[in-house]
Amino acid sequence: QGNYASMPPKYWPNVGVTRSTSQILTDLTGNSSITANNLTYGSDGSFTFNGSNSYLDAGNAAAVQLGSTLTLEAWVNPTNSSGSGNIIQKNQNSGYRFRISNGDLWAYSSGNSVTTSGSPCANGTWCHCVATFGPSGLVVYVNGVALASNSTAYSPANVAAGNLQIGRAHV
Predict the structure, then answer these.
(1) CA distance 145 to 155
(2) Which of 28, 75, 106, 116 could join 4 in a cystine, given CB atoms 3.0 to 4.6 angstroms apart?
(3) Residue 64, C-beta contacts closer than 8 angstroms, at least 6 positions apart
(4) How would you classify residue 99: left for phi > 0, otherwise alpha for psi between -120 and 50, otherwise beta?
């Protein structure tokens, strides 16, 4: 037991269940502002995204309006290195996006981007993927190692528009 009210939404106790339609999720804090679409909930607490129409949508509330610096992170276990899909995005084309494409990780914000090379996350292997955006530029890390960066300052233009989404296919 803990004080979950001060924690961000992050845990859904629906493990081992497949949902074929949209479902509103309620986390341990009682927050029910996240919609799950066509996800499989793994017995280990993970979500499986099908690469086409499954994703989490956290809406556009004040809690997801991020400022001049941000860090996006996820545990990723790719199954198809020849495909592409967003890990996390907000206002796709003029906000920010962290995605995997043909095995490489790509971080983007309002025309500024950085891409890894050499497919750092092998199919069937869990990788801890992080993208940082700030005044010193963009950096992509895999398992704690910085693999790509630039020194162009992050500009949070247009991040107030659009919903925060996790796992949505590139649309």
Answers:
(1) 24
(2) 28
(3) 58, 90, 163, 164
(4) beta
